[in-house]
Amino acid sequence: MSDSRPPIYVTKPFLPDLKEVMPYMEKIWANQILTNGGPFHQQLEKALCEHLGVEHIALFTNGTIALVTALQALRVTGEVITTPYSFVATAHSLLWNGIKPVFVDIDRDTLNLDPRKIEAAITPQTTAIMPVHCYGHPCDVEAIQKIADNYNLKVIYDAAHAFGVQCHCGSVLNHGDLSVLSFHATKVFNTFEGGAIVCPDAKTKQRIDHLKNFGFVDEVTVVAPGINGKMSEFNAAFGLIQLQHIDAALQRRAEIDARYRAELADLPGIRCVRDSGEKVANHSYFPILVDAEYPISRDALYARLREHNIFARRYFYPLISDFPMYRGMPSADPSRLPVASEIARKVLCLPIYPALTDEEQGRVIEAIRGACRN
Ligand SMILES: *Cc1c(COP(=O)(O)O)cnc(C)c1O
């Protein structure tokens, strides 16, 4: 059976009306500042600090360069404890710094790094922990900070999924030493490509600003082997426009999330991953776990959806620790990562994005329910 209706992808980037973009372009053309911390770059940093409820933010060309730079800024070396259940850029940022990733298993409920398993992985070489707020669900930030304090470790959160997420003490981005955001096209808030580092003090932001501009402090002074990580004026201007639409976008995501939960609740073997108790969620993904009670396997459901022209994604499968540059490491052994390995076999992320229509969401739900009637 093949479906002739239009394809539904796991996500679709939010784009404002092109008419809204033109006045910003005209300003860039008029003042001829294209990059290097121009006026839109400064405006977006300020606007994001206010919107997110954070003190300082440094914009980047993408989230991966921001992760690499965050590790440089804190002079992290040796070994870093991280999760295998994430997008591959999390661990790649460690390899780019010559750091050895040490994978630790995840918690079965939150799918985030399990704080109870961190201590056993600490060695004299460990200098930091890099957890991920997976799907925008906050990590157990208190437990992680306690371990970091006891062992004098830095904490850098990969917060690529966590734009706008608040735990009970305010923005989740205020935890740890640094938090890194991604504004990639597929993320909740996008600037085409983009990213940022959230930092607690002006001095750290200044160091990061030097590092993202080749290490330049002034015309003749270079203080570090920095990289080119700057966000362009186009991306920054686009971010300012996106910010005007973000509340409506998150509202629509919340509706889609609620309907999936309601209409999949009674299906045997389909478990919707719960949030981890955040005060404000961003519904950046809609992961379900396909258990043995469901009539077909996860991969068969994935294929069935494709036959219906629905492109769900198996985030995060394979685990990072299963890729060739990691799998030889002792901590990458699947027997040490039983929860992450099981979840990677069961997970499927369903389409969720502001422009998903009720009819389209109905198609997704119907295709999943249909397997139970065969
Ligand atoms: C998207 C993503 C990144 C990388 O961000 P880019 O902006 O695409 O470089 C890093 N970590 C996680 C968890 C991500 O989902």
UniProtKB/TrEMBL annotation:
Keyword entries, A-Z: Aminotransferase, Pyridoxal phosphate, Transferase
GO MF, one annotated term: dTDP-4-amino-4,6-dideoxy-D-glucose transaminase activity
SUPFAM superfamilies, sorted: PLP-dependent transferases (SSF53383)
Protein family membership: Belongs to the DegT/DnrJ/EryC1 family.
Top-rank taxon: Bacteria
A Pfam match: DegT_DnrJ_EryC1
PANTHER family the record matches: PROTEIN RV3402C (PTHR30244:SF9), TRANSAMINASE (PTHR30244)
Name the UniProt record assigns to this protein: dTDP-4-amino-4,6-dideoxy-D-glucose aminotransferase VioA
EC number: 2.6.1.33
Main enzyme class: transferase
Record carries keyword Transferase: yes
